[in-house]
Design a protein that fits this description.
The chain is α+β, with helices and mostly antiparallel strands and about 150 residues long. It has four helices and five strands; from the N terminus they run βααβββαβα. Helix content is about 35%, strand content about 25%. A five-stranded mixed sheet has the order 1-2-3-4-5, sandwiched between helices.
């Protein structure tokens, strides 16, 4: 079965919100009723992010969410691949790889300097996937965060 990827808009909000809620639960958050729908609707309406939705046979099976940033040095946009999720029924079927390929194509068409992502140090499956589609591990910079 082939995977079709489209840029999600408000018409796809229900499907994306359900996947987004499952994604958040995967990372230890509780189910949040209408919270995911409100959050994603605001991102779509404001143009804060780009959400790519994967469908197989008409069923929404995965998504990725990209946020814009900029490189001052390159004077070009950077896109942050912040979220990538595939539902249990579609894992290990190539959906994640297809979403990554579409994200790369989107960033290229947007004239981006690069596409970046972060994943857990213990998430070996994700690391293998990223490296298999030629993402490069960044060993040049140390990243910090300031919890608020």
């Amino acid at each position: 079965m082939s995977t079709r990827v489209l840029r999600a808009g408000l018409d796809e909000l229900g499907d994306v919100a359900a996947l987004f809620d499952a994604y958040r639960q995967f990372y230890g958050q509780g189910a949040d009723g209408e919270g995911p729908r409100r959050f994603l609707a605001a991102r779509i309406e404001r143009g804060d992010s780009v959400i790519l939705l994967a469908r197989r046979g008409g069923t929404a099976v995965g998504f990725t969410q990209l946020y814009p940033s900029y490189s001052s040095v390159a004077m070009r946009p950077i896109w942050i691949l912040n979220d990538l999720f595939v539902g249990k029924s579609a894992r290990r079927t190539g959906v994640a790889r297809t979403l990554l390929e579409h994200a790369i194509q989107f960033a290229l068409e947007a004239g981006a300097a690069r596409l970046v992502l972060a994943t857990g140090t213990g998430n070996r499956a994700a690391q293998r996937l990223y490296e298999s589609v030629r993402w490069l591990r960044d060993d040049e910079y140390v990243y910090y965060k300031y919890p608020l």
